[in-house]
Specification:
The protein is of the alpha/beta class. The protein has 6 helices and 15 strands. The strands form 4 sheets. Strands 2-3-1-4-5-6 form a 6-stranded mixed beta sheet, sandwiched between helices. A 5-stranded antiparallel beta sheet has the order 7-8-15-12-13. A two-stranded antiparallel ribbon has the order 9-14. It starts with 12 loop residues before the first strand and ends in a 7-residue tail after the last strand.
């Protein structure tokens, strides 16, 4: 079903990622955010909704980025569009991590309250800091008997220079702290910048192939807007395509009339390849 969408105000958009080591609770946190914002009904929740590829399930790691839109009614009375851009949590996928972070203005750093910061997590944090992302730390699994959240928070503060109000104590498993995390995304992370009336520019940060719609490119609209009947040019190779559809992931593909400045979604290109 097509919905008309003229683009949400920039100030009410947040594009963010979750950075975490394997088994520190990233997928569980993503699921809980989707549940809390009613993006996914709890009864329909398939464990780790974002990890939809078979290989991911097998290894318990996220491989391909997924970009899911959530609508969040914040404490300030405004409704925000939150775009969660999922990133791989494994050392082999640092290129994909950096591509995903390019589409974000903020990142949630998830650290296990029992294990502390891992080296690979720090490598991804540095990628985020290089791109000037606003970082909020989530000290997760505080419900575990061997958790030491204060010690881990001090460690995070020391390594990354975060203040106390840039950290949230949580348990994604039990739901503790989830509302605080959503508020932190809204309050601590900036909205995207972009020229709403400018010529259209968009960043492709991932893609997959669909037998009927060709390459589905995952995009963040940097300037202007993209409509479902637009013609696009890929700057990397000069290829042009008449779009078949634009939309967002909710987490299923939801077609819309347009994607506005700052928004994250997909474009169906009809192309066999974007190489």
């Amino acid at each position: 079903m097509m919905t008309d969408h003229a683009g949400r105000e920039l100030r009410r958009i947040r594009n963010f990622s979750i950075i975490a080591h394997i088994d520190h609770g990233k997928s569980t946190l993503a699921d809980r955010l989707l549940e809390t914002t009613r993006t996914v009904d709890r009864r329909e929740m398939m464990d780790q909704v974002l990890d939809s590829m078979d290989l991911e399930r097998e290894k318990g790691i996220t491989i391909k980025a997924r970009a899911v839109r959530m609508l969040y009614d914040a404490n300030d009375g405004e409704t925000y569009e939150l775009n969660l851009i999922d990133t791989p949590g494994h050392v082999d996928f640092s290129y994909e991590v950096s591509r995903s972070l390019n589409a974000c203005e903020g990142a949630l750093l998830v650290v296990d309250a029992a294990q502390g910061i891992e080296a690979q997590t720090m490598a991804n944090v540095y990628l985020a800091l290089e791109q000037n992302l606003a970082i909020v730390a989530v000290i997760n699994k505080i419900d575990l008997p061997n958790a030491d959240p204060e010690k881990v928070a001090a460690e995070v503060g020391r390594f990354i220079g975060l203040l106390d109000d840039e950290m949230v104590f949580a348990s994604a498993k039990t739901g503790i702290g989830i509302p605080d995390i959503l508020e932190a995304v809204v309050q601590k992370m900036p909205p995207p910048a972009g020229a709403i009336e400018g010529p259209t520019r968009a960043l492709i940060f991932d893609s997959h192939y669909d037998a009927y719609k060709g390459v589905i490119a995952y995009v963040k609209v940097v300037d202007g807007r993209i409509g479902g009947d637009d013609r696009i040019r890929l700057m990397a190779n000069g290829k042009e395509a008449d779009l078949l559809e634009v939309g967002f992931f909710g987490p299923a593909m939801m077609p819309v009339a347009t994607l506005g400045t700052g928004e994250v979604g997909y474009v169906a290109t009809g192309l066999k390849s974007v190489q």
